[in-house]
Request: fold
Amino acid sequence: MLCKHLSFLEHLLNMLRNHFITASRDLLLAARTTPIHGVILALRRCLLEEPEVVSSMLEAQKMPLWRLFFQHLVMTMRDISNLLLSMLQSNEASSTDQHASSPSFADMGNAIGSLIRLGKGLEEEEEDTVLLSEEHSLILTCCWVSVKEIGLLLGGLAEKVLPQPLSAGCQPLLPLQVVRRASKVFQDILLKCRHWGAVEGCSVGFAKFCATLLSHPSPKLQNIPRTMLTEGLALLSSPRGSSVTRRAAGFPMLFLCIVTGEGPAESRPLLTHCIQTLLTLADQPISHSSDQTVDLPQVSAVHVLQTLVRGSNLGPALQQHITSLMVLVLKALSSPSWAMRNAANQLFGALTVRLLGQKWSPEDDRAKDGISPEALFGRHVHLRSILLEELSLAVEVSVFKGPRRGKFHLCPSLYAVLTFLAKLQPSGDTQDSTLTCFLEPLIQLSGNPVYAVRVMAAKALVPFIPVTDYGKILLRLASRFPQPEAALSHNALHGCLLQIQAVLNQALKFDRLHPELLRSVACMMESHIWLLMDIRRCPLICAVYLQVLSLVLRSCSPGFVQQVWELLYGDLASPKPGFSPIQLGSSNFCQCAVNFLSQEATRQESPERIRDLSLLLQKGNPDVQVAVLTWLLDNEEGKGLKSNKELQLIFMEKFKEILKNTGDPTVLKLYLKVFVHLFGNVAEGQPFPEKLALECGEILFSMVENDHQGPGLRSHAMCAATLFLSQHPEGGPLRERWIAMVEHWSDSLSDEVLRMAAAKAAQMGGPAWIWRARTSSNFLLRSQVLRLIEAAIRLLQDENQQVRHGAASFVSRLVQSPWPAQQVQPHNSCLQLQSSKALLSLLEFLLENFGDHPSTFASLMHLLPMVELRETLMELESQGVVSLYKEDEPNVYTEPAVFSQVLLPFLLQLVENASISQKLCESIQSWLETTGAGIVSTIQFCKQWWSQEDIPCLHLKALSCPDVHSAIAALLVKAILVAHVLKILETQNQPNCTPGISVSSQELSCTIHSLKDLLRRRGIAIMVKMEPEQARLEEN
Reply:
């Protein structure tokens, strides 16, 4: 009996075989003209997503035909996968060797190069280039996408067909031999494929395949995944001579898919056997003389374990193996093989996520959930003794033995353990002896010679301190400070201060310190002021000491605070010989010292101290200046300091000097940022001195226009230069240069940093200037405003959200209630508009305030897509198959076709207003005479082209071409404008003297209406609103 579903699927299979034959002869030609993956995708969707197909399979009369079809289908999938994988294998790896490892990237590159030369008929190699050619990308994608689709098809087929109930005496639709053949296809793909997208896609299908077989009642089918697991473990244990660039590849996914196929309610014997075998293999010793340029079985085993730990479906089943995995990681971190250490680091990261949860995003302001030490060690009892033993060993080796023997001992696993412990949440209120035993080794590690270990040990100490013991631990740590005359260990002193800072921060955060206890800690800190005076002082130690003092500053005595101020100010104002700017940690100390002084000056609101800080900015060394500038930028609590007139005057004097003597670009960029930060809200209200504004403005615009400067420096210079514009004539050359740069940088091809600067500059210098220009009769000034608004419209359609937000801020300040000319509108004084709403608001503002300007119409017409429909369609006809690798547009966010429809009502309004402005009328009439005939001709051509019935392929190509949609939308908008202008002329009884236009407005409107209907039938719906009469005609 004939089955229409099966007939169609056989047709697709025959088409796939033809594509396969083409690929076997010339893969480059096949990738261009007959790509394999499309037919495989069609087969998959028809087989798996159509209910009637499944019903047809179960009909007894048709089952033999379906069984034969499935055999041919799986054999074809096997042949295609073997072909594609073998074409990318190196010459040394036989295509018939099922256990050949995946080729390296170099091997694949050489193989693809040979295929390209074969396809082009070249004998010699082409010149080597850094970038991949289009042919290279085409072949690579053809292979990997096809391999991915094969995996998805076979996996979905097994999942859909094997569980189907069969009548008594009927043979299965997928015989055992066919299923085994499919398993070999999966095995080959995962062992020989390197592309992660293909491996991941194929793994989805393989996971379905294994889950279906393991849950099937047939023991023979259940045995297929088990056999594959056994073979995979045997292959993993055997030596393989592959390069280090082939590490892991799809191998781990083979094991993951098999073990996740076991039912969650079962004991998971396959998972247990797999992990135990991998642990045994990974624990085998690695010789110091082993070749580290090949894959080691031990390393591959750790990579597989990492993949299993990351498997989201294996969480509960892995709990019993956590302790064994942690022991392996800590041992592997000390391996002589860098590859093993690297694999162990990755496995440790996976274990951390599995035990403690996913890392939180810095932008997430929700309360952090986590796990406390009590909960962690309650779930994994043996983990406590393992981690504690590791810490104790590290203390013995690195703290006690090392210094006495004069040696530097590394503990490779120590930092990983501390990082893990530092991520735990704080303990509860009750003391637990099983946790307090961690305190002693962690406190001892404060003397570790490695800086990063001391920092992490301080963070790891906090979770193990009971909340009620914060004060006791603080006093204990502070009591470990040596006296000035005692022998100093800078490492121990630095580590002790770090731990005091960490515990104090946590205690103050939860408000767990009594004022008297806080005063006691402050007194102990006061007694060690010698740390800032001792000749053996270390900048790193001084910096942490100041950070601790900042936490207890309110509990310190006024005399002590004054003494610290004098010491720090003396150091920063005139550095002593022992304080070298190039000394390790000197810049960090400068920043901490400036933070301390600025915090104290702001807290006391002392004019004398603010004046002292201003002098530091004027006379301090570069590190001190950078520290002051950084504090001004980063600390909002210093608003009183920032608004100090004396500081602003000193800054301006220093700013002019910095601009004239450009040195370090980093320092210059920082000065520019602070300048905008300090003066952004006061420049209009309190003008700069005229001479200073002229000199600084010229220097800044020279930086802005210098293409040899970096985009970061140019962007900050642009924002700073904007503040000086109010000191220059409205139509002066500086304003023209500013407009030109905003226009240039608003282009989508400009650097993202420059586009952001253009939006910010428009926001800073645009609204007040535009409001003043509204009432001006200066033609040049109003033309400049139009250019700025046109640039803002482009920025509102930028692909970067921050750029759109900046442009929307400009519009928000522009269209809402204007402030008096002598005041500056505060940044937060208006409601922020969303970018799409801001775009409409800006267009409305343009028509309302500048609608009578003769250049307004041309400016809006310039925003329409500049794509010629006739040329675009001709190009589609002349080119062959559409390339899969067409270059992306510079701005993927903008939608030219939609924007054309948005512009149409505003353009029609301008045409309606032409009767009010003679110059605007002349501008529109000039546009009609120049372009009207071409628009009418193109409308007729477009209607004729889409009316052809014998070019369906071309119609499909045009439907998938974004340029065609943009060109049609722009054409319809222009045609509607032409019809509207013609109608106005007819209403006024003016003869149509436009050359090339012989139709009336009514005839043109009917043509537009019929074209829209035709396009809609072809699949292109352009929702342009015609004038009211035409809209009623369209509804009829």
Summary: The radius of gyration is 37 Å. Residues 490 and 1006 are 89 Å apart (CA to CA). The chain is about 65% helix and 0% strand.
